[in-house]
Fold each of these.
Amino acid sequence: MSEVSNKTLATLLIAAIVVSLTGTLVSLNKIGTSQSIVTLMDGLTGRAVTEGTAQLEIEQLVQVNLSITTIDFGTGYVDPVYSNCSMNTITGGNNTCATLPGTHAGAGMVLENTGNVNINVTVQHTKNATSLLSETMESSTPEFKHAARDNETTGATFIIPVWTEINADNETLMIANLTPSETQDEFWYDILVNIPDDAFPGAKASTVTFTAYYCGAGPDC
């Protein structure tokens, strides 16, 4: 095999360099092309907007709960030294009453607005003072009274805040604008009885009905 001349070697070296540079340029061009595609893809944006509706309807609920349902003044009689015996659910009884262990202070009924609207509350008894206590002796002076007392009723209007004779013929508005808010939705319903010494003996009772009305645009709402 003949020796390769220096000229031939130089020619082959130049050719190899040219091929190498060409391959490098092709590779760089491909990289540049790929980067351009990536950049183009990153620049593309798309957006579609639509809307839906979530809905419900809350019904008006007028509802009350009576958590203390019975006022029991107990069993006893008027002390013979006195002409009457007076008891109530705020201060209890007095020394004119004998053996009436059921009476005590703070024993009124508690009514709560358990609905979701402001309400007015009325009461109606089945008996008044005469039909409950005397039945009737001419000398009798019976009393059967009621009142609404604050428990947690900020904003409500107390229509009967002081002792008032019970009228068994009609409903009596006791409180207006009683809110359903958790810490402001209760009031006390209190009872006072004054028993004359000549009242007929026997069991005495009056049923009271509480009625709640939606407090709309009335004068007390």
Amino acid sequence: MIVRSRGTLSVAIGAAFALFVSLLAASPAAAAGTGSGSQAGRHCVLVLAPLEDGETLSRVLSETCGETKSMALQASDIDASAAAIDLFMIAEHSGWGGQYYWVTGGAACDNAGYSFTPSSWWRTRISSSSYENNCDRMNIQNSSGNRANGIASHRDTMPLGFNDNVTFINFYNG
């Protein structure tokens, strides 16, 4: 028969709890983060205004994230008509897998289209893209400043040098 004092048992339980907490903090999910600078584990919707003459970036009307696209749209306080048209989608993995980032607006793409800089989380995770409503071409730039212009927007994989490395996107009707 093993006899332990109450103090020894408390110390053992405390040590086990501390070990559990440290393992949890070191897990990949915890390392991904969930703060304002991170969109890990979330689907996001970006609502943009069409490019105006002289603009290089579209005005961001709203950006919200949620467990689903529908939840992200519900979290937005923007007028529904401003986000009524699906324009462009980027995916975390090749072949349109993983988390999604939808871009919506109030008008279909024209020759100028829409431009944006992905959040820091997405800049290192864009691996595929798709389009709707005439947004069939895109210009992209990577962290080295290299550009791929006039490429098809519907891609199951980003071009060489751009997979998980996109810092600027302009999608338009070409």
